[in-house]
Amino acid sequence: MKRAPSLTLSLLVAAGLIAGCGGAKTAPAGQPQKIRVDVIPTQASDKFKEQMKKLGTLLSQESGLDVEIRIPTDYAAVVEDMRFGKSDVAYFGPFTYVVANAQSGAKAFITQNIKGKPFYYSYAIVAKDSPIKEMDDKGIATLKGKTIALGDPASTSSSQIPQLAMKNAGLDRTKDVSLVFTGAHDAVLKTVAAGKADIGFVDSAIFEGSLSQKFPEDFAKVRVVWKSMELYQYPWAHRKDLDPAVVKKLQDAFLKIKDKDALEPFGADSFVIAEDAKYDPVRDAAKALDIKLENYQLKK
Description:
By secondary structure, the protein is an alpha/beta fold. The chain is 36% helix and 19% strand. The chain has a 6-stranded mixed β-sheet. A 5-stranded mixed β-sheet has the order 8-7-9-6-10. Strand 1 (34-39), helix 2 and strand 2 form a beta-alpha-beta unit. The radius of gyration is 21 Å and the shape is globular.
């Protein structure tokens, strides 16, 4: 004859306090639920870290949740944290998002408006006295023999889209050019401004927004010579099994944020609801670069 579970055990299971029950742990009574948020390191400055801390505080206040924003060392770590359940929400670049979506089911739910629209571009920048002139997509072929500064290997605007443009222009990225991965958009700006690369690729919104304000001397030393097709803005995505009620609280909290200091790192006017289908062009670009998203390993 089977023995009924004790009342104490039943209560513990119901409260989610016994290991192996699945799902996120329930916060103790009277304490807000902890939400772990990873942000890709698009910038390396201390100010960026302080702004992310402020954004976490604002999201906590608006949602009633305990939102902790973390900045891992590279883009790959953000994808891995989502894949292995170490984060609940993550701020991805479009490319890292489609990788995370394919590998862990992460789902975009928020993005941002830039000058009233949720789009941006990949910009190519050169020193003001550079002989490189403004160019179209075919003009990318003239970069043969040049040193090119890129950001993180997994960046959409500072790596994937530029490399696709090089491939489409007939350049062999391993033989015809010298690629230098700097790790972040601000590092690309500084590398080009210092004359350590002939040309660099950056996110247009970050370049025209926070980089122009944080590094005015470097910004004044460069000019834009190329821009890509229109790209849908970076998404904030939640893990596939996050409680829909929690997702709604976070989504509503993002939509309420108007603080300029919290929006400035993204070059944003406001946060808006994201659409997964808008990232299909990035999936198409990955296919063109022979990248299989389901098993793609991001470089560290």
